[in-house]
TrEMBL record:
UniProt-listed InterPro entries: ARM-like, ARM-type_fold, Exportin-1/Importin-b-like, Importin_beta-like_NTR, TPR_TNPO3_IPO13_2nd, TPR_TNPO3_IPO13_4th
Keywords: Nucleus, Transport
Pfam family, one: TPR_TNPO3_IPO13_4th
Region (Disordered): 722-748
Organism: Durusdinium trenchii
Biased composition, class Basic and acidic residues, residue ranges: 733-748
Family: Belongs to the importin beta family.
Coiled coil stretches, renumbered: none
Domain Exportin-1/Importin-beta-like: 33-158
Keyword Nucleus set for record: yes
Compartments it resides in: Nucleus
Name recorded for this polypeptide: Exportin-1/Importin-beta-like domain-containing protein
Main location (coarse class): nucleus
Length: 748
């Protein structure tokens, strides 16, 4: 309301208002009917004098923004009422902006404010197409961007917002689209000129603005692009966007990614025989080449030290490769990447590494063909992978080559002669001791070994039916690599375990499992007082058991059941006995118990009483919620058998009694046992009512704290004058309301 009071000092008032804005509470207390014609009054008083235009435009710009500002505390009715008034005033605001350029030499500040005001109102409401198409600000925006002056960034935002408005209804906004397309030639010339020059930081800023505009044009015209793909204007827009994708700036090249994904999705809606896909194959082949180029690591830094931003960018580029495969088909994309690789194989290692990185996705999706030239690459990989450590770029290329080989497990497994060779080659990378390596080489070697262990797992899991003859060597590798970091060795455990689990002969299966479990059992005895090592041993055992899938009772199931009952169950019981307070170790032990039970439930059933006693004893020592979850697994697995009901009933009764005592003794420290009280899904039915009782006590204790806080607030409000307090609709101050209500007593 300051406009009514200080109309002659408007600029000074607005400046003061901006420097020291009023608090949201003052806006909250304003009544909605105090100024019903605020915008009309502002136009009459301050929209006539050019000296006040900059400040007046600033106010007009802020109105729609502040209406949508949820930080301003007001009710929905006032906000909606204000929004409706602003929308009703839209024609008057746009007409004012339309006439503004006709003024004699408007000041630069006025131009900026007018552009910002226009942008604010376009974001706020759906401006009619006629108002946008006839507005001279649109051509001016293109001129600002082309000349890259101080208003180019705001002009870019305005053009982008106009295009987003047009995309909501292309037919209705066809006049606006025609205006935009008529000015694209100016920006295209600017774009080509900057590409022909050596780009610096300022040029990249200008290219970013141009890229945003062309990409937004493309997204707006996706339906037209599909129907008019041979049109010269459409082709030129696609070429500009394609060149933007291949720019060296990660920020700029990331802008078109969503457009390419949307276009690929629209193209692939047609049948594969449709001519539309053929028309776009050329574009997506070029785009695939750009993707490979963008995936290349910088030679200016150690690729092993690349930060998360670089790695995330490469993953986004793989998403673009996936869009290319959707249009081209995986095998066509594979042929193109291989051709590009062989054409540039004499370039530096990082270019080769980028091809390997892309091939890891493309080739894994392609159909295995004996005639593919990919076999030439696969047969050449052992030479690269077996090479001695050298420069960082060569080692990084070797690491990616190993990852590529792991992703090609379908191809490798189709040729048994190469399968064994690939595993032997990868195994050699896992055996060397790196403890004496220099610090700067150790991290590289570890990353190479991590890639080798993952590739080993993929090849073993995929070719497990063909690796029976190599099982002795695989078991030897399993033993000699036990000292590797646990993350690497778990991949080896999974690979070897999958081969052992696929054996059909009982003697071979028993021998393989014993050779895998025996060193772990020995380690369990020697590392009894080392929880960290015990946890790693349990992790390995869990991975082994997960490979065993028994669907029927047979000799193979009997062999596995004998191992689980006579070897693994004693190990689990020993861990729970010696480390009842270690929550991580308890959780892993119960996880191994669950997997063992579900693997051979019929054979493990005989140990049910022993398992129940162990859980009760352990839960009595320490109330881990994991024990309750294990009891639930027992019930779900064995409750259907009437013979097991007495054991399960006794188990639940004892766990309920222990839980009841624990909750009673912890009544004054409920926060410390929140995990136990919240384990509703794992608590037996007999224990759940007490859990709800404790939850009620927890609620009542929190409610008591809330009452205390409100009492303090009431005392503070007593000292505040009533006129300073917000009013309710019936006019009673807040502190009187607090006095006339007994807090909490009428709450449900």
């Amino acid at each position: 309301c300051f406009l009514n009071l200080f109309d002659h000092t408007l600029p000074t008032c607005v400046t003061s208002l901006q420097m020291s804005p009023p608090s949201p509470r003052s806006f909250q207390s304003a009544e909605d009917h105090m100024w019903p014609n605020a915008i009309e009054t502002a136009f009459q008083r301050f929209g006539q004098n050019p000296d006040t235009f900059p400040t007046f435009l600033e106010i007009i710009r802020m109105l729609p923004e502040e209406n949508q500002n949820l930080k301003l505390v007001t009710d929905s009715f006032k906000r909606e009422s204000c929004s409706q008034r602003l929308q009703n005033a839209t024609p008057e605001v746009l007409q004012f902006l339309l006439n503004l350029p006709d003024l004699p030499s408007p000041r630069a500040q006025t131009r900026r404010k007018a552009l910002e005001c226009f942008l604010s109102w376009i974001k706020f409401t759906n401006v009619p197409a006629s108002h946008i198409a006839q507005n001279p600000l649109i051509p001016q925006c293109f001129e600002h961007v082309a000349h890259w002056d101080d208003l180019s960034e705001t002009a870019t935002d305005t053009i982008v917002e106009v295009l987003r408005t047009c995309s909501m209804d292309i037919c209705a906004y066809q006049p606006v689209i025609q205006v935009v397309l008529s000015h694209l030639g100016l920006l295209r010339s600017k774009f080509e000129m900057q590409l022909s020059q050596n780009t610096n930081a300022e040029d990249l800023d200008s290219l970013r603005q141009l890229c945003r505009i062309f990409v937004e044009v493309g997204e707006c015209l996706v339906p037209l692009v599909l129907t008019q793909s041979t049109d010269t204007e459409v082709a030129s827009i696609l070429q500009v966007i394609l060149k933007c994708t291949d720019l060296p700036s990660r920020e700029i090249s990331s802008i078109p990614l969503e457009f390419w994904h949307r276009l690929a999705d629209e193209v692939c809606r047609h049948p594969e025989t449709d001519v539309k896909i053929d028309q776009f194959q050329g574009v997506y082949i070029e785009l695939l080449s750009a993707s490979i180029h963008q995936c290349a690591m910088s030679a200016a830094q150690d690729p092993f030290m690349a930060d998360d931003e670089v790695l995330a960018y490469r993953q986004r580029m793989l998403g673009l490769v996936e869009d290319c495969m959707a249009v081209l088909t995986p095998n066509t994309a594979l042929e193109h990447v291989l051709k590009s690789l062989f054409d540039e194989e004499k370039k530096d290692e990082l270019v080769q590494e980028a091809h390997f990185f892309v091939l890891a996705m493309v080739a894994s999706s392609a159909e295995v063909r004996d005639s593919s030239v990919l076999w030439d690459l696969i047969q050449s990989l052992p030479t690269l992978i077996s090479s001695a450590p050298s420069s960082a770029s060569l080692d990084f290329t070797k690491k990616t080559a190993i990852e590529l080989l792991g992703n090609l497990w379908q191809w490798v497994n189709s040729r048994k002669d190469f399968l064994g060779l690939a595993l032997v080659m990868i195994s050699q990378l896992l055996v060397p001791d790196l403890s004496s390596s220099p610090a700067h080489e150790l991290d590289r070697a570890r990353q190479v070994q991590q890639a080798a262990s993952t590739a080993f797992k993929h090849i073993c899991v995929g070719g497990k039916l063909h690796l029976e003859d190599l099982l002795p060597e695989l078991l030897d590798l399993y033993g000699v690599t036990m000292a590797l970091p646990i993350r690497m060795h778990l991949s080896i455990v999974e690979g070897v375990g999958s081969v052992v689990a696929s054996l059909n002969q009982e003697d071979q299966l028993r021998s393989g499992l014993e050779q895998m479990v025996a060193p772990l059992a020995q380690g369990l005895d020697s590392a009894r007082q080392k929880p960290h090592l015990l946890g790693e041993i349990l992790d390995r055992l869990i991975v082994i058991i997960k490979q065993l899938h028994m669907t029927e009772s047979n000799a193979k199931a009997t062999c596995i059941g004998h191992l689980l009952c006579n070897t693994l169950w004693p190990m689990i019981r020993q861990c729970l006995h010696h480390h009842p307070t270690d929550s991580k170790l308890v959780e892993k032990s119960c996880q191994l118990l669950k997997d063992s039970m579900r693997c051979v439930p019929d054979l493990f059933k005989h140990h049910l009483p022993d398992v129940a006693r162990t859980l009760v004893t352990a839960f009595q020592q320490h109330q881990h919620s994991t024990y309750l979850y294990s009891a639930e697994v027992l019930a779900r697995t064995y409750a259907k058998d009437p013979e097991n009901v007495p054991v399960l009933t006794e188990l639940f009764n004892q766990l309920s009694g222990i839980g009841l005592q624990s909750l009673v003794h912890s009544e004054d420290k409920l926060e410390e046992i929140r995990e136990l009280a919240e384990a509703r899904e794992s608590i037996p039915a007999i224990l759940q009512p007490w859990a709800f009782t404790m939850a009620r006590q927890l609620y009542e204790s929190e409610l008591q704290e809330a009452r205390s806080s409100l009492a303090k607030l009431q005392a503070e409000l007593q000292e505040v004058p009533s006129y300073a307090l917000p009013k309710k609709k019936h006019g009673r101050p807040t502190h009187e309301l607090l006095q006339h209500r007994k807090l909490g007593e009428d709450e449900p």
